[in-house]
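Hi U.,

Before I forget, here's the chain from the pilot set. I'm dumping it here mostly so it's searchable later in email.
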Amino acid sequence: MQDLLSTLLDEFQEKLASTTQGLARESSFPVIDEKIKVAIGMRRVGKTYFLFQTIANFLFTKEITLQQVLYLNFEDDRLLPCSQEKFRELLEDFYRLYPDNHDRVCYLFLDEIQNVTDWALVVRRFFDTKKVKIFLSGSSAKLLSKEIATSLRGRSVVTEIWPFSFKEYIQRHNIAIPQALFSDKTRDLMMQSLKAYINEGGFPEVQGLLIGDRRQILQDYVELVIVKDIIERYRITSISLIKYMIQTLIKNPATGFSINKFSKDIKSQGLSGAKNTISDYLNHIEDAYLTFSVPLFSESIRKVESNPKKIYVIDTGLIKAFSFSFSQNWGHLFENLIFLDLKRKGHKIFYYLTHARYEVDFLVEDRLGEKKLYQVVWDASDLQTMEREMRALKIAEDELGIKGELITVETYLRGVWAELSPNPLP
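Structure:
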């Protein structure tokens, strides 16, 4: 096992040097010393790169050596299957290779840890008995959260990793945005980039690829998630149903999803599935970070349960990869983009219906408990649409006593431009 570990460490050190020269992600682990750090997200969003970025920062700022760092990727076929015993032996071999590590702080980075049987017990013991900082990553929110809650008992903190934001997309493609003034040229350039970002999405691997190659890779991502993170993990037997359901959700972003209506739909497709099964599948899909469901905001549980949830997708490029229509609903795609921005900030997200059933896209609650309403509009030149959206927002403000904000493409572009510009002029 020591020979394998030595090989893995050599490969890690070579890869570290070649992968830390790219874009620094906006995400970061919180500075909380007495916690195990956990990075969660869909496959291929860049969790491994994020871990490497964290390692590089430690090497640069904390005066540690590479001998104090252990990185293991548990999707490496040489480590699979990985039992609890094999996992324990790998960690102990690390200390045998570098005996001085018994007397100094070590940094353990364990990538895709959900592939290790009963990993939490070993992690907890090392965290309690060694001088270690432990960093985990995984592709299933439910699996990691469940094991963390039961075995780590409040000793961890979670960071979610997402595809590139629009700001990161601009930085990744080295798009030169004029910083002195938000002129017509600046707006037009950013609008061009925004449409490209919506079409291409934010998965790191597909940036700059031809549309056919990009579509194929993104469809392959989804197929991998379906097989590994849903079908195998939850022992799904109705494979045709789960695949049809996922395609339905991805192709209909920013729209309501009713289990009752979907149940009737699948019958017309020659499929069958109980409502409880459909509800379970929706949870499994969300646990795998493919799509997300947003409930109605209401004090009445009955109203929440009787109204459909709105569905959003992990990435607009993924939506485009499953769309076979030459037309596109920019409004729904833009709303999906805003949803993802709100998720990146860690907000709790709902939608709201006024007493007269006018809809407001988002009611969010931040980490401090502050609430705010957002209404999203793609085409501000459509006066009828603007009037309708503003009316709904104003009524919701009056009913709830919560401040609202209209997000248009213009206000969104100005906001991103201000973040990119160190000293923006109004």
